[in-house]
Amino acid sequence: MPKGGYALSSSQATSINAHGLPSDKPCKKLWRSSLAHSPGEIFSDAPVTPNIDRSGGIGYKSSNVVHTLEAPPWKPREGTLMERKTVIGTGGELLVHQLLAQGVEYAFTNTGSAEAGFFNGLLAVPGVQPILLLAEPLVLSAADGYAKAARKPAFVNIHLAAGTRQGSGQLQNAYFDGTPMVVTAAMRDSGSFGDHVVLGSSGGYSQMGVVEDITKRRWEVWDARGIPTVTRRAFQEAMSFPTAPVYVAYTSQALDTPDVEATIQPGAAPLMGRLPEEGVLRTIFDALLNAEHPLLVCGPDIRAAHAEREIVELAERLALPVATTTLDYGSFPVQHMNYVGAVENISEEPYDVVCCVGYRQSCRGGAVDLRFQKAGMIIALGHDDTLLGNTFGLDISVWANVRPLLQALNAFWKPEYASQPHIQRRAAHLREQGEWRARQRQEEMRALASETPIHPNYLAYVASRVLPEDTLVVSENFRAADHLMPFGFDKGQWRQIRTFGGSLGYGIGAAVGAQLGAPDRPVVCSLGDGAVMYSSSGFWTMARYGLPILTLVWNNLNYQTVRTNFANWGGEMAKQNKYPEVYLGDPEIDFVMLAKSQGINGAKVTAPQDLERALRRAVEVIAGGEPYLLDVRVSPVGPGADSTWYKAFKLRR
Prior knowledge:
This protein has 653 residues and is an alpha/beta fold. The protein has three domains: 15-31 and 274-429, 3-Layer(aba) Sandwich (Rossmann fold); 85-268, Thiamin diphosphate (ThDP)-binding fold, Pyr/PP domains (Rossmann fold); 449-633, Thiamin diphosphate (ThDP)-binding fold, Pyr/PP domains (Rossmann fold, 3-Layer(aba) Sandwich), CATH 3.40.50. It has 20 helices and 27 strands. Helix 1 crosses helix 2 (116-124) and helix 3 (136-150) crosses helix 14 (507-517). The protein is globular, with a radius of gyration of 26 Å. The termini are far apart.
C-alpha cells in the first residue's frame, strides 16, 4: 500500500468508532446540528472553510472565527434575524403575508373556486405573482423546475382532493428527487354534514391521505388563526434535511374567515453544519488516497449544497474516477477527464474503495440494486439519512451537508501526495481514457453527419456547438444523447435539470419553472415526442408570460424506452419485431401546429444539413424574448428501431 496514510482492508472495514479507528460495532448514522439561517435559503453560498484542529478538535471557520464542536457559539449573519409583524386580515390574506415573509415570488397554480379566499388575498396583499398552468401535473412539474433552478422552495396551490390526485404523478417525481416545495389546497368538510362531497375526500378519509406516501409531512388547518404557523412550519420542514415536498390542506372556511389577527414570522431550516470527528474524516481521506482501484459516485446533493468546486477538487487531486447515476449529467462535468459514465453501465469490478457523495440510487426493485458486492470499503456521505445504506451495505455513513464535508476532506491534502506513483498512474489512465473518448466522439460525428433521419447523437453534437453558453437544459429524454452536451460547473458550461422519478409529463412544466427560477439563462426544454403529449398545454403558459424557452422535440414516432425494454424482454414481441402500442405515427402529430395553436411559432427539421441553420434561427428568437419550438425528426435507435407495427383497428370501416 502506498505511503501517506492508511486504508482499511475489506476484513477491517466494518465501522469506525468515535476516534476514527476500526470497530466491530455496527455502523451508525452520524450527526446533525441546528444552526438557523435565512428563510428560503436551503444552503448558504457563504464559504465555510474547514479548520482541522490537530490538538483533537475539528470545526469550521466563518468570518475568521473558529467554532469547535465542543462549544459552537453562533452569531447570525447580517440581515438573517427573523422579522416579526402582526397583521389582521382574512385567512387567505394571512397566507399571502406568510408567503411574502418566506420570500415567495411565484405561486404555481390551477385555480379553483374552493380556494377563493387565497386568490382574493393575492389582490388584497400584493407581491406574489400567480403562474397559471392548465392542468395540475404541469403545476407540480413547474414548481419542481423552479425549485431546482432557483435553489429555493416552491409554493403550489391546487384544487381540493381531486386536483391533488390529478397532480400526484409529478408530485411523486418531486418526492423521489427530494425537491423542496410546499403544496397546498383547499379542503371541504366531509363529516359535519354530507359525506358525499364534490371533489373532496370520501367520508371517513382525510385529504392528507391522498399524498401520504409522496410527501414528507402533511397538515390540515381548520382554524384561520393557525394558517401562518402551519405555513411557516411547512416551509421549514420542506427545507430541512432531507428536503422534500410537504402538503397543507386549508378548509375553505379558514381561508374565508375575516378579521383574524396573527403574527407573521418566516420559517427557516436548520443548517446542517456539524462534522464528524477528525478521525472519521481522516479515515475516509486516507482510504481514497491509498486505494489502488477507487470509485467516486456523485449525486444531486452536490448541486443542492453548492459543492461543485469541492467535488472537482477532491476528484482531481486524488485522481478519482467519477460515476453518476443514469441520466444524471448535473452532478459532475460530463466532459471532465475523470468522468467515466453512469454507475449502472460501468463494470462491477472489485473496487477496493467506493465513496458515494450525495448519491440517490434509482432502485429497480430487484437484486440489481445491491451494487458493489465485491467492494472492499463502501462510504456514503449525503443529505438524506433514509438513502444511506438502504440497499447495499455501508462501512462508513455520514449524514451531513456534503459541502463542509468535502471541504474538510480536501483540507487533508498535501502537495507531495501528487508525486505518489499510484496517484500518477491513476491520473495518466484517466487522461488517456478522456482523450480516447474525445477522439471516438469526433469520428462518430463525422460518420453521422449525413444520416437521414437525423441521428440523435448528431442532434446533440450540433446543439452543443450552436446553443448559447450557460444554457439550462430541462431534459425529459430517456434514450437521447444528453451525455454529448457540455454540462459542467464552470462559467459558460451548460446545466441540466431533470427528474429521476420517471413519471412522464415533466419537461414542459419544469421548463416554465426553470425559466422563472433562472431568468438570466437561456432555457431549452429537451424532450421526446411521447413526453410532449403528456403536458403540451404548457405551451400556453410559456406564451402568456413571455417565457423565451426553446422546446426541442426529438421526434422518433416512438415510445422508445418502452419499445427498447419490450425488445430486451424478448418473447413473441422480439421474435416478430412487433411491439404493442409504442409506435406514434399514423397519424403523425404536428407539433409545430400544436405550439402555434397556443401562441408559439416553430419549425420542422428533417435533414441534417438544415439542422444548424434551424438551431441558429431558434436562438435568435429566444434571444428576442419569445418562446420557440423545433420539431426535429430523429431516427429511432436501439433494439426494434425498425419496427413501425401497431395493431390496426378502426371503429367503422
